[in-house]
Design goal:
262 residues, alpha+beta, Fructose-1,6-Bisphosphatase, Chain A, domain 1, D-Maltodextrin-Binding Protein, domain 2, 2 domains, binds adenosine-2'-monophosphate, binds calcium ion, Inositol_monophosphatase_CS, inositol monophosphate phosphatase activity, hydrolase, metal-binding, EC 3.1.3.25
């Protein structure tokens, strides 16, 4: 049996420590490299923060598995047992260019079921978290269940690149015309936190990796939000793919009225 309250306590303590070292790094010279393309950035801090979490987890919870963006975790092939899915800095471009609008994201799953989710806004020292079955929180404030909203009154997060496809049937073009407004923040974790707190009604992304959505999915689902791929299917915790996270009702409408081929 896993003692979830000791896992929760450790995760929160390590998030605070990691957050302090990230803030301290603002005074140092970053080493910036690129990954898949020239705009896909990674820094020494992304790597150091992931190494910090992996070493703490291995010392404290040696039976737990770790899936991390920067590759310091394990070669996770199945969702059996306890898995920590970690993004040490979500929104690296924001971290490098803005020194804000980036988060640490952690989702902890047991046999594929979300147990503990954390989205940490390092710069504002604000933690969004959920303990499955016990509620979701923004700091000390318990978050209310998400309420239904109409498409015409929805403010949704998405990346403008989604609109650059020439496909006239691109459902995103109709969605952008029909909603009240759109926002692009450049951090999936931030956008999940904003859906959880009602600042956004939905967030749509064509490709996210497990570490981009793991923490946010646990938090948003705890308060009745719906998280699926563009087909309305559940997300695979070990694969990248499309993601729609939205308030109840709105999610159904976006899938049924825009994404499903007529
Ligand atoms: P990251 O900052 O941890 O890489 C907007 O860029 C969002 O998409 C961020 O949450 C970012 O996470 C994620 N993302 C996923 N794949 C990406 C890629 N190839 N390049 C940039 N961002 C990516
Ligand atoms: Ca990245
Ligand atoms: Ca990410
Ligand atoms: Ca990252």
């Amino acid at each position: 049996m896993v003692n979830w309250s000791s896992v929760d306590k450790a995760a929160k303590e390590w998030l605070k420590e990691a957050g302090k070292s990230i803030v301290a790094s603002f005074e140092t010279a970053l080493q910036i490299d690129t990954k898949a393309d020239a705009n896909d950035l990674v820094t020494n801090i992304d790597k150091e923060v992931e190494q910090y979490f992996t070493s703490q987890i291995r010392k404290t919870f040696p039976s737990h598995n770790i899936l991390g963006e920067e590759g310091f975790g394990d070669e996770v092939q199945s969702t059996d047992g306890v898995i920590w899915i970690i993004d040490p800095i979500d929104g690296t471009m924001n971290f490098v260019h803005q020194q804000r609008n980036f988060f640490i994201s952690i989702g902890i799953f047991e046999n594929g079921k979300g147990k503990l989710g954390y989205l940490y806004d390092v710069v504002h020292n604000e933690l969004y978290y959920a303990i499955s079955g016990e509620g979701a929180y923004w700091g000390d404030l318990k978050l209310p269940m998400l309420e239904k909203v109409e498409v015409s009154e929805a403010v949704i997060g998405l990346n403008a690149m989604l609109l650059t496809s020439n496909d006239v049937k691109n459902p995103l073009i109709s969605i952008v015309k029909d909603v009240r407004g759109t926002r692009s923040y450049g951090s999936a974790a931030l956008e999940f936190a904003y859906v959880a707190t009602g600042r956004l009604d939905a967030y749509i992304s064509k490709t996210l990796s497990p570490w981009d959505f793991a923490g946010g999915k646990i938090i948003v689902e705890e308060i009745g939000g719906v998280v699926t791929d563009f087909k309305g299917e559940p997300l695979n915790l070990l694969k990248k793919g499309s993601v729609i996270v939205a308030k109840p009702g709105l999610h159904e409408k976006l899938i049924n009225e825009y994404f499903q081929e007529k």
